Amino acid sequence: MKYQLLQIRLTDAEVDLINSTGDHNSVDKQKLKMNMITPFKGEIAPVAKKALELGYYTHVSNITADSLNDVFEIGNIGPEENIERFAPMHSVSVADIIVDEEGNKNVVASLGFEEVV
Questions:
Q1: What residues in the chain have per-residue pLDDT under 50?
Q2: CA quadruple 113, 3, 14, 27: dihedral positive or negative?
Q3: Hey, is 44 helix, strand or coil?
Q4: Distance between CA atoms of 26 and 5, rounded to whole angstroms?
Q5: Rounded distance, CA 90 to CA 87, Å?
Q6: Is the dihedral of CA 45, 101, 89, 81 positive or negative?
Q7: Gap between the Cα atoms of 95 and 7, Å rounded
Q8: C-alpha dist (Å) from residue 51 to 54, 57, 58, 102
């Protein structure tokens, strides 16, 4: 199965703004991403949905895998031939969204995944 990987990417200008202010909250999409890093179970999906609706996610790659867990593993350790890259991507981690072939969206949580509805 082919899964889409969506990640929040910052522009150089946004990184410069965060660095100059020392405040991750100075860039809304970074603020939302940071809010997904350590919340309680069930609190990540609504934030991911909001970030998705605001257009903060970029489709960075397609990953051929058998399950969400396989997407996570391949996105972190390979094999590279299972990854079709469209933009620079970091390893699959918390706050990334995985979309299956039926369009179901799941956000990577601290433990497992949460469905984004």
A1: none
A2: negative
A3: helix
A4: 26
A5: 10
A6: positive
A7: 8
A8: 5, 7, 11, 21
